[in-house]
UniProtKB/TrEMBL annotation:
Domain Winged helix-turn helix residues, every copy: 98-154
InterPro entries: Homeodomain-like_sf, Winged_HTH_dom
Superkingdom of the source species: Bacteria
Lineage: Bacteria, Bacillati, Actinomycetota, Actinomycetes, Kitasatosporales
One Pfam family here: HTH_23
Identification of the protein by name: Winged helix-turn-helix domain-containing protein
Length: 181
């Protein structure tokens, strides 16, 4: 996972990654090869080579976690309160438009109103991801959609339109025609 896309690691994930690096350090000390470590720990060979270099320069201490890259601006208590407010929904906070979902901009504004703390849109995304929240995209469906008619078409009409598969001759994905002989 790339940190920029994943929004940072939770403390638990940081600890797990540190354990993997320390396990690699033990294997370095035993003289194991990079390929074996890569396979056993399920990491890239590039990471193992980088860890080995760090280990050679600074020992096991060089592979220990340096702590969170960014410090959260919300305390645990503030986060718990924010989470409660997010569960109440946008309508409870004055957004009464057609779309009743949380956007990053709305969450940013809510944090600012509640705690007087500024976040960027990207910072809000990282904060939410770090605490286990994910993007939820509502399915867009026509108001006139008729589920019964769709199911009838899928089970009755589609098999007739599609027709049976011809199995008397092996098929080919090639666009060229067979030579006539």
């Amino acid at each position: 996972m790339r940190y920029a896309q994943g929004g940072g690691l939770t403390p638990g994930e940081q600890e797990k990654r540190e354990r993997v690096r320390l396990e690699a350090a033990e294997r370095f000390a035993r003289g194991e090869k990079t390929e074996a470590i890569t396979k056993e720990l399920r990491v890239t060979s590039r990471s193992v080579r980088r860890w080995r270099h760090m280990w050679q320069q600074g020992g096991v201490q060089a592979l220990r976690s340096r702590g969170p890259v960014s410090v959260e601006r919300l305390s645990a208590r503030q986060w718990a309160r924010l989470e409660q407010e997010l569960k109440r929904g946008p309508l409870a906070h004055g957004w009464d438009d057609e779309f009743q979902g949380w956007t990053l901009k709305r969450v940013k504004l809510l944090i600012g109103r509640m705690f007087h703390v500024r976040y960027t849109i990207q910072g809000v995304w990282k904060l939410l991801r770090r605490h286990g929240w994910s993007a939820q995209v509502p399915p867009r469906r026509a108001i006139e959609r008729d589920e019964e008619a769709i199911e009838m078409w899928r089970t009755g009409v589609w098999p007739r339109v599609k027709g049976p598969r011809r199995t008397w001759e092996p098929t080919s994905v090639s666009r060229t025609r067979r030579a006539r002989g």
